[in-house]
Amino acid sequence: MDSTPHVRPDPRRVAQRLDGNALAGMLDAFAGLDPALLLLTCGHCGRSAALAEWSVEMDAAAAIVRCRGCTRTFATILRRDGGIEVRAAGGSISTPSAV
Amino acid sequence: MRTSDWLAARVADAVPDTAHGRRLTLAVPGWPGNAPGQHLDIRLTAPDGYQAERSYSIASSGPGESVEIAVDEIPEGEVSPYLVRVAEPGDALEVKGPLGAYFVWDPADPSPVQLIAGGSGIVPLLAMARARAAMSAGAPFRLLYSVRTAADALYRDEVERLGAAGLDVTWAYTRQAPTGWPGRVGRLDAERIAQATWMPAQHPLTFICGPTSFVEAAADAMVAAGHDAARVKTERFGGS
Ligand SMILES: Cc1cc2nc3c(=O)[nH]c(=O)nc-3n(C[C@H](O)[C@H](O)[C@H](O)COP(=O)(O)OP(=O)(O)OC[C@H]3O[C@@H](n4cnc5c(N)ncnc54)[C@H](O)[C@@H]3O)c2cc1C
Ligand SMILES: [Zn+2]
Q: How many CB atoms within 10 Å of residue A35?
């Protein structure tokens, strides 16, 4: 008989292999939110601020989102046949903590 | 309805405001209403299918399917000369909005509010001042409004009326002041900004709007004077 208590892995820590459909609920908070309020964190210098406070260089074709701390490009957003394409460069996007 | 949908709109009214600026009322069936400070995007489509989109702040707020904007003409521009000189009541265009939940004033917030406008940057700030004036009791407001000359000021009459009704208004003239004006003509500097605005100890919420270089200079001056950068909200209209 094994006297040591059986250690079960914490079910919350075991990664499940799913597909992107599983993210729909989790990312729902993004979609319902005004993008200007999204919190962007620069992967280079760590500056964190609402998208509204980032520098944007825009022309008819594209918008470049740059960090006001270190001027690195965070993302490039291109207009494409009535839609958009986001080219992510570096950093993270999160919902503001109040949401 | 999502805010990413374009809505069909019509010009309902077009009133010249300055020699190069015009107020437009747009009838937008299905408009969900907007908060003071928000903007919309306008899309114009040429007969050959070419499309141009630009952002315009909304001078009105609250519920209703009628929105007011005010456009200052950039003489070499693509869209603003059309809106200021060409568009007439009945003309069709498309709008998307309301946009921007960041540069908005919450009427329930009791903090003193400092508005700093450069040129057409008055538009979203006027929406806030109008919303404040419509309340019986609300946050104390101050407005610093920088224009080239008195004749260039969009909403000059309404700002004067709001001033007479209790809004603390300071005008700044960068090219020419009205005769008898006691102040100094020229771009705002840190000292004049400090004189016309709440003290940092009063923890105001500051909204600065106008051409990009104006906004940057004014925001830098407020932060250098000791205001909390997180309470200095900016909206850049572009240009220099
Ligand atoms: C959120 C937001 C809200 C805005 N609200 C208003 C508003 O309420 N009223 C208003 O009149 N404008 C507003 N603008 C500016 C507006 O979107 C256009 O940029 C402006 O009307 C010029 O467009 P245009 O097509 O005529 O000029 P364009 O053809 O785009 O530009 C022609 C030339 O003018 C320069 N230029 C572009 N914009 C400006 C500017 N704002 N100031 C000085 N030079 C410029 C360009 O660099 C370019 O060299 C707002 C901009 C933003 C981003
Ligand atoms: Zn950075």
A: 17
Q: Give the pLDDT confidence score for residue A81 in this predicted structure.
A: 83
The pLDDT of residue A42 is 97
The Cβ of residue B228 has, within 10 Å, a number of other Cβ atoms equal to 13
Euclidean distance between CA atoms B113 and B132, whole angstroms: 10
What is the predicted pLDDT for the residue at A98? Answer: 56
The region, left, alpha or beta by phi > 0 then psi within -120 to 50, assigned to residue A12 is: alpha
**Which two three-digit tokens encode residue A18?**
């799913």
pTM of the model: 0.93
User: Nearest 5°: CA angle at B150, between B147 and B156?
Assistant: 90
Is the pLDDT at A99 greater than 60? The verdict is no
Contact between B11 and B93 under an 8 Å Cβ cutoff? The reply is yes
Q: Which residues of B touch A51 (CB under 8 A)?
A: 102
**Spatial distance between the Cα atoms of A54 and A88, rounded to a whole number of angstroms:** 15
Contact A37 B103 (CB under 8 A): no
Measured in Å, residue B59 CA sits from the centre of ligand 2 at 34
Report yes or no: B113 and B142 within 8 Å, Cβ to Cβ: yes
- How far is Cα of residue A32 from the mean position of the Cα atoms in its chain? 14
Strand spans (E) along chain B: 7-16, 21-27, 39-45, 51-57, 66-72, 92-99, 113-118, 141-147, 168-173, 205-210, 232-236
Q: Could you read off the pLDDT of A36-70 as tens digits, one per residue?
A: 999 999 999 999 999 999 999 999 899 999 999 99
The ipTM is 0.83
The rounded Å distance from CA A35 to ligand 2 centre is: 19
Ligand 1 pocket (Cβ < 6 Å) reads: B 39, 54-57, 69-72, 74, 76-80, 120, 123, 211, 235, 237-239
